[in-house]
Amino acid sequence: QVQLAESGGGLVQAGGSLRLSCAASGRAFTNYAMGWFRQAPGNEREFVAGISRSGLNKVYADSVKNRFTISRDNAKNMVYLQMNSLKPDDTAVYYCASTTGWSRQSATYDTWGQGTQVTVSS
User: Fold this and answer.
1) With left for phi above 0 and alpha for psi between -120 and 50, is residue 69 left, alpha or beta?
2) What Cα–Cα distance (Å) separates residue 20 from each residue in 41, 64, 79, 110, 121?
3) Tens of each residue's pLDDT in the chain, 122 residues
4) Which residues contact 34 (CB under 8 A, 6 or more apart)?
5) In sequence order, what are the beta bridge partners of 5?
6) 94, 36 in Cβ contact below 8 A?
7) Distances in Å between the alpha carbon of 88 and those of 16, 22, 43, 115?
């Protein structure tokens, strides 16, 4: 099992950028595909981006495509989410998660971080 911890959230104005980091600990980080999810108050948790074990394959929600970039550094056990051109609708708690599969569904992810708050102001 891998343990995950997010960081990098904060307050940013619309149009700005943030880079979220997810630090993983535990054995065999490369056995897991990784995903970023977000949850706004009153909403269900939604998929944002996913990256394969090797980092060669990436998937994005339509709402963030061409604005966000997911990446990973397997040598450092790190996953990142670069968020550019941020919008107020991006405001949410962002979570990283691991899976032995490959899916957009949150129920398929095995381990979750505690989340980091991203707030985008107008």
Assistant:
1) beta
2) 20, 14, 8, 20, 17
3) 789 999 999 999 999 999 999 999 977 889 999 999 999 999 999 999 999 999 999 999 999 999 999 999 999 999 999 999 999 999 999 999 999 999 999 999 999 999 999 999 99
4) 22, 24, 50, 51, 70, 72, 79, 96, 97, 98, 99
5) 23
6) yes
7) 11, 22, 15, 18
Cα gap 43→6, rounded to integer Å: 20
- Cβ-Cβ contacts under 8 Å for 108 (sequence gap 6 or more): 99, 101
Q: Which two tokens stand for residue 53?
A: 């074990």
- Residue 101's identity, in one-letter code, is G
For residue 80, list its beta bridge partners: 21, 71
The residues with which 21 forms a beta bridge, in sequence order, are: 7, 80
Smallest Cα–Cα separation from 7: which of 94, 97, 119? Answer: 94
Site of tokens 């997911």:
70
Angstrom distance (rounded) from CA 83 to CA 92: 13
